[in-house]
Amino acid sequence: MFGYIVKRLLSLIPVLVGISVITFLVLRLTPGDPAEAYLRLSQIPPTEVAIAAVRAELGLDLPLPVQYWDWLVKALTLDFGKSYTTHRPVWDEMIFLIPATAQLAGVSLFITLVFSIPMGIFSALNKDGWFDNFCRGIAFISAAMPNFWLGFMLMYFFALKLDLLPTLGRGSWENFILPAVTLSFGYIATYIRLLRTSMLENLEQQFVLYARARGLKESWVIGRHVLKNAMLPVATALGMSIGHLLSGSVIVENVFAWPGVGRFCVSAILNRDYPVVQCFVLMMAVIFVIANLLVDIAYAWLDPRIRLKGES
Questions:
Q1: Any stretches that span the bilayer, and where are they (predicted)?
Q2: For the chain, is the Cβ count within 10 Å smaller at the N or the C terminus?
Q3: Is residue 114 within 8 Å of residue 186, measured between CB atoms?
Q4: Cα of 3 vs its chain's centroid, Å
Q5: Alpha-carbon torsion 169, 152, 193, 138, what sign?
């Protein structure tokens, strides 16, 4: 197991280097001059002299390889420069806003797992029954429903019509309900379908027949043998969902005025605040990579065949 983990850690190095190069180049090659955007946000007339001075100050007049190396060295020390809008260090802004996004993503993930795992199990054990049809209907609806539209509908019914829940901001636990449900609804349907399909496949395997022939209780066969193997694709999806919940909260945070990283990033994109956008993109990419690494380790623990193949 240790050899497999070391091998996976070493494989992350070129991935992270590639991510940093893409993050740096994408914004550098987009139309528009960052120096001009900086001046406009600072309410300074973008004259040629002022643009030249800002380009020299920000190091934009240097060759691209030199700019990339300077940016990478600073990024490794969590120095992403200052925001063009707030004129504060970007990382300080991110650290202040990350807890709100992490809390929303955590509550959404909790709701997803609490509802999807039992529903996926019961759907598979009652194939083609009314509950199975109900779950498939939910999956169909979620696939066709954008989360921002669902957010507006929830706000309309539960806040405007029924006056039960708050719609904007981050305060008490009631503020979490609408944005968390909006963010988790699509993932619930995805996990139900994954777990249902995986359990049905495993129920047809020979080891289930042998376990039943040995006289094992059905609950033991389902819980100890079928469910453990059926959770493998769910574990894979979980790694992707962690990154998606953090980065995908961008739209939900704007709908519900949630004071998180996603809302801050949208504002930075509209204002062409390049240091903030670079920090956000790189941070989300690193989170995706780390989440996938943890999933690979969990996958190897659940299925020893993967671990042995990786070590060999």
A1: 9-29, 94-122, 134-156, 176-195, 230-252, 280-302
A2: C
A3: no
A4: 28
A5: positive
The C-alpha angle with vertex 139 and arms to 135 and 257, in degrees rounded to 5, equals 120
Q: How does pLDDT run across 239-260, given as a tens digit for each residue?
A: 777 777 776 677 788 788 788 8
Of 103 and 222, more confident: 103
Query: Looking at the 3D structure of the chain, how many domains does it have?
Result: 2
Amino acid type, 127: K
Classify residue 306 as exposed, middle or buried by CB count within 10 Å of its CB (0-12, 13-18, 19+).
Answer: middle
Q: Tell me the per-residue pLDDT of 145-191, one tens digit each, with 9 for 90 and over.
A: 777 788 888 888 887 787 777 777 677 777 888 888 888 887 888 88
Closest CA to 250 of 233, 234, 267, 237: 267
CATH code for the domain of 302: 1.10.3720.10
Q: What is the pLDDT of residues 255-287, one digit of tens each?
A: 887 888 878 888 888 777 888 888 888 888 888
Q: Is the pLDDT reported for residue 307 higher than 60? A: no
> pTM for the complete prediction?
0.76
Number of helices and strands in the chain (H, E): 15, 0
Same domain, 107 and 40: no
Residue pair 83/261 in contact (Cβ under 8 Å)? The answer is: no
Distance in angstroms (rounded) separating the CA atoms of residues 104 and 98: 10
